[in-house]
Amino acid sequence: MAKEIKLDGVTKEFGSIVAVEDVSLTIPEGEFVTLVGPSGSGKTTLLRMIAGLESPTSGTISFGGKDLTTAPPQDRPLSMVFQNIALYPHMTCRENIGYGLKIHGVPVEERNERIEEAAQSLQIEDQLDKSPSELSGGQQQRVAIGRAFVEDPEVLLLDEPMSDLDAKLKETLRVEFQRLHHELDATFVYVTHDQNEAMTMSDKIAVMNEGRVAQFDSPESIFHDPVSRHVSTFIGTPSTNVLAVDVNDGVGRVESTTLPLPNSTSSEDQVLLGVRPQYLTVGGGDLEFDVTVDVIEPLGIDYVVHTTSLDGDNQVNVVTDSVDELAVGDVITIGAALENVHLFRSSGERIRRPKPDGVEAE
Questions:
Q1: CATH number of the domain that 58 lies in?
Q2: Assigned domain for 362 exists
Q3: Residue 308 lies inside a defined structural domain of this protein
Q4: Residue 359 within a domain
Q5: Spatial contact of 336 and 217, defined as CB atoms under 8 Å apart
Q6: Angstrom distance (rounded) from CA 321 to CA 278
Q7: Assuming Cys at both sites, which of 29, 122, 181, 330 could form a disulfide with 4, CB separation 3.0 to 4.6 Å?
Q8: Which pTM was predicted?
Q9: More confident residue, 104 or 68
Q10: ∠ CA 39-43-48 to the nearest 5 degrees?
Q11: What CATH number did the domain enclosing 318 receive?
Q12: How many CB atoms within 10 Å of residue 100?
């Protein structure tokens, strides 16, 4: 049965380095939760503490309400798939998948039944009697997943399991992981630096930054309602466009567009505007300004139009489904609805813009 995982004030220090700082997070039972962030953000360290491979410097970790902060990995209701596949080269794939069951004394008949079931689910039935050296990288990774799968874990931890695979195989395995999640009664915790993996597979995402959780929410909320500049620019492809805002008497201005700001905002405050390329349109909008077309990049159905502001200070990307009227060197007007524009302080914190009546608009 899937388990809820609760972290309360978890911190991990390595000497003077704080790898994870005061993380409190509840991962609901049965959900697929991804920890995503750049290198050094603390995501793998956090996963290793959940697994029991690292001990927190402070804080507690519980599974299903039971405090297992100091419990060794073998006493936690979980299995783990590592980035390093680490299959036993002298064993067949069948023996690799069933090794954990053998160690735990599962009878041979039941063991073989569970191995066959896992292999069928992962579509590697015809590979079971081969050695790992005879398999492709993707097949080896499926064997490693099968090894975790057969133990019927309540929690499955996955540490960047697709980082060494090619794009086509990643696409296939993304679907595979989601299908397995629906089949298994287990809580999935997945670590990756690839925001595309996080956005396509997860029920919820924890965006990590400098050892802390910057935002924990659904993929849709993180994309449309980021709480900080880091979240807005890290999640989404192409990345969010960031422009400087001129502030005067509590009013922000970008080109000819005025933006209401909180009364506490002064002219000394540095304010930045963020707008996703998907929200910009050719022809203008509530917020609009002129740019020069530099490059038109086809992406199949859509195009990314790379542009530069007329003053040369900002590179701005626009995603559009038609470029019939555009050419490199053109000066065009682009714009976005104000509801799709976010403002950030220089610290990166999101500024919630007020409505005219004082009620927060966002």
A1: 3.40.50.300
A2: no
A3: yes
A4: no
A5: no
A6: 10
A7: 29
A8: 0.87
A9: 68
A10: 125
A11: 2.40.50.140
A12: 15
